[in-house]
# Entry
Amino acid sequence: MAPKVLMVAEKPSIALSIASVLSGAQMSTRRGSTEVHEFDAMFLGSRAHYKVTSVIGHVFSVDFPAAFQDWTTTNPSDLFQAPILKKETNPKAHICRHLSQEARGCTHLVLWLDCDREGENICFEVIECTGFHTSDGRRIYRARFSSVTEKDILKAMNSLAEPNRDEALSVDARQEIDLKVGVAFTRFQTSYFNGKYGNLDARVISYGPCQTPTLGFCVDRYLQITMFKPEKFWMLHPYIMYKGYELKLEWERSRLFDADVSAMFRNRIIEDGIMKVVRVSEKLESKARPSGLNTVNLLKVASSALGFGPQLTMQLAERLYTQGFISYPRTESTAYPSSFDFKGTLGALVHNPVFGGYAQKLLTESYNKPRAGTDAGDHPPITPMHSASEDSLGNDAWKLYQYICQHFLGTLSPDCKYRRIKVEFESGGEQFQCVGQLATVKGFTSIMPWLAISEKNLPEFAVGEKIEISKVELDEGNTSPPDYLSESELISLMEKHGIGTDASISVHINNICERNYVQVLLYALISNSSCCRLSSLLLSVMVQAGRRLAPTPLGISLIRGYQCIDSDLCLPDIRSFIEHQITLVAKGQADHSMVVQHVLEQFRRKFSYFVKQIDNMDALFEAQFSPLSDSGRLLSKCGKCLRYMKYISTQPARLYCGTCEEVYYVPQKGTVKLYKELTCPLDNFELLLCSLPGPEGKSFPLCPYCFNCPPFEGIDAFFGAPKTGDSTKLGKGVGMPCFLCPHTTCPHSVIAQGVCACPECSGTLVLDPVSAPKWRLYCNMCNCLVSLPEGAHRISTTQDKCPECDSTIIEVDFNKKTTPLKDGATLHKGCILCDELLHSLVEMKHGRSFSRHGRRGRGSGRGRGRGRGGYRGRGRGSNKQDPKMSFRDF
DNA sequence: GCAAGGTC
# Structure
């Protein structure tokens, strides 16, 4: 039987390329979770049937088991020893099922994942999904390729190897370390500070070995600025008039910090009165054309010249890529493969209305190969693939595309050549100079005009000439602090220190912005280039805004806090330390679990020390933020002390009881207000009415205490919880509103307010108590919405049930003028499913159908009463005093 | 509500 070969790539585009090459473009393609390309060709000397498909990045990601997901009952320090599990990154994509199905009947598996550690790790994810075992006679091969070209693909096919388990394990190690360290610190500091201050305005106060050093760079610069002490300085500038030019000469000493000494030199020059030409030199200089464009450089230019943040830039680039206008935008490489088809790429641009002429000129007058760059073995530099116009792309995407084209054309253009003339003078024993520049070959700067050299003409001087000084200026200045860190500088720092990757740098920067640790300041930039012969469109690219990152009080307090307690925590070395440790695993020099244990133990000690020393960070917060007791407005009464609690509206929204010193989180979306001063029969807390945003937002009552500490077990879907039915995932702000409460006599519970089963899911349709006059039912689990007769004075549930379908009988008090009842009667009782009148008046707003078919009971009896109590609050544990440890000790 | 890494 002919062998069947399954090949798996990291993304659909690579699967397509591989299949095209190996089949000679003679393949059939069918849809699946990802596309599958099939064809027959030779494999290891015999005729074989091929299936080529792909994953979409990692198939799995790590997380904690359900038992460790509850913030209130899990001590963060226990996370270091907690088990972890791998779950599908995107369950909806069904990648695992897809691979398993495609692998059925296959005798050989060839892994075409990207050739880096992450790719090696994904190899083993794929192996797991396919169920291939080396023991069952089926063979597993690893294809190693450095680019997705025909030559490299064929070369890889002829030298199939084995996947590298050590490299894959090093990624497993990083995942576990990042997860445990990040989540432990994040949960601890979030709970600590949000439980103490009311105006942090931060839903989560996160920590991570990439994001925190990223923030650290921004705060470092901020601290430099605040510590800066300006100094006065003086600069001597003599002027001469010569052959019609007025020239301002530069002093060799540049500037002096002493007023008297500067004045003395000034007097000497004035006394001399003559400038003597001592040397005239001319040099031919050159400014090199760029090498290929990689992601980091694209992000930097986009931020400093286009005013686009990294997040936006990557979104735009992704779109340009999927539409076929540019090549793959996530790459470290600045070198093109030797086989790259520059002619073809230029050819693709010749009809472009903006660049066509320039591209044509390069084609006809010959082009230079791009300057050598670095080949990271991933993807070629970012290159235009297709011509596009502004109309077809939209403004922002066009600006980015335009830059990518300009850069590409620049790489193929000649270097810029210019003459640099330096004239040196002497007067009063002091040296001066002036410099002129003249371009001889503009080269790439004619397509990238913002990089052009500034030209300056000088008259011809002869050595020994003496020229009268027309005036002498002594300019006074102040040294000035640096500006806030520009995003472009930050990207350079991250790259230099190995913080993040080409694909994740933008995510880390976006994180520290979204979490309110830094604020983006937009600076207008004016291009100083006026020598552009091309359309003004090109020039306008560079006249946008630059972005700088100013840390917020929260960001500053965090970093200064780490610096007080353990500066390792916010230094970039923390990433290199982890990288160094896992590299030992990747190289097979250390055992995976030993390394993980060792690194986690160090971080556990650091964590423990941090917890003990948190007062030092807290002192900074105290100086900056208001305690909960001073925040918010009085809203509702606490059931324990019967005093009013304060509602704090900044994120995360919560109630604070100053007497009990307790915090109760409320739903984070929508608004809350007091609900008719009604109280919960279980705990005496006053009920709140929460209204979700939007015209069709639900309104529902909730008890603050029950919402945070649900009193009944077995509630199968907490409000706001993921729909995966993971009922133990019960973080703060994810709890039990009254519409999920199975209390049998409380008038607000699902027992009293529930009407019938939801036709869409396993939930219950509940009467919205404040929806008049547009009365409606909504599902307590999904977004199903049913409108009831409009304009009724009152609609309420009764204690009666429909004998036919077990739904709750409702009572409607119609408006006198619009009542559909005979003889102007207004009161009507019935089942909304079985009563013909009522059923004809209800309407399904969201959901497919609404009828008696397929309905169930209203789900009573769910949940069982349980006493209050149990574990509350975060245990601090009884850790021994652990010394702070430095990585450098290991 | 948490990390960082793939990719869409």
